[in-house]
TrEMBL record:
It comes from Amycolatopsis albidoflavus. The lineage of its organism: Bacteria, Bacillati, Actinomycetota, Actinomycetes, Pseudonocardiales. This is DsbA family oxidoreductase. Coiled coil: none annotated. Residues 5-201 form the DSBA-like thioredoxin domain. InterPro entries: DSBA-like_thioredoxin_dom, Thioredoxin-like_sf. CDD domains: DsbA_FrnE. Signal peptide: none annotated.
Length: 211
């Protein structure tokens, strides 16, 4: 049977992307068809954060202009949804940061032929569960992405894969993607944070299209 390729646009800053990452893996396993995921970078903050470093809880009030009560409802909804997928998500204390360095590391892992799913999982957990600073190359170098520490640090000294990250983002925008996660097969798009059942049906439908 032909292997079905699914392209997934996501940002490591996005809690729904972590949930979608887990749900898609489960959906592929339950679909009974061979499928592989090609990860694409999407930048929720393409201009990067402001000059002053802030945690997300502070950004919600200062930059997003939403009330403390409204942020509390959003935060609780995200964290409860994460727990349903077996994930610990801490939104208040996650950093608002430029995710491009993290995406460049993920591109390097892919270029090395390493398990992209493992590398993405490490990034999601570091940001959303452990609230580590993914703008710090020493932090990125210590993550279990399969890469050697010295090659990650070397990446921080050049601009390798920066163009590829931006190209992914622009391609996603050209496809009409405005929020992530989004899964693409052919001309069909589906929200990656859909239920496992919905994603399983999407995977099976995609497999039939290439059979």
């Amino acid at each position: 049977m032909t292997t079905t390729t699914l392209r997934v646009w996501a940002d490591v800053l996005c809690p729904w992307c972590w949930m979608g990452h887990r749900r898609l893996a489960q959906a592929i396993a339950e679909s009974g068809v061979p499928a592989r995921v090609e990860h694409r970078s999407f930048l929720l903050a393409p201009e990067g954060p402001g000059p002053r470093r802030r945690r997300i809880g502070e950004v919600a009030a200062v930059e997003w202009g939403i009330s403390e009560a409204e942020w509390g409802r959003r935060r609780d909804r995200i964290e409860q949804a994460g727990r349903a997928d077996g994930l610990t998500i801490r939104m208040d204390t996650a950093w608002a940061l430029d995710s491009r360095p993290a995406h460049r590391v993920l591109k390097l892992a892919a270029a090395r032929g390493l398990a992209e799913t493992v590398a993405w999982e490490a990034m999601f957990a570091a940001h959303l569960r452990d609230n580590l600073d993914l703008a710090d190359w020493n932090v990125l170098a210590d993550l279990k992405t399969g890469l050697q520490r010295d090659e990650v640090l070397a990446l921080g000294e050049n601009e390798d894969y920066a163009a590829e990250v931006l190209a992914d983002h622009e391609e996603g925008r050209s496809l009409g993607i405005r929020s992530v996660p989004t899964i693409v097969h052919g001309d069909r798009l589906v929200a990656g944070a859909s239920s496992v059942q919905e994603l399983t049906e999407f995977v099976r439908s995609a497999a039939k299209a290439v059979a």
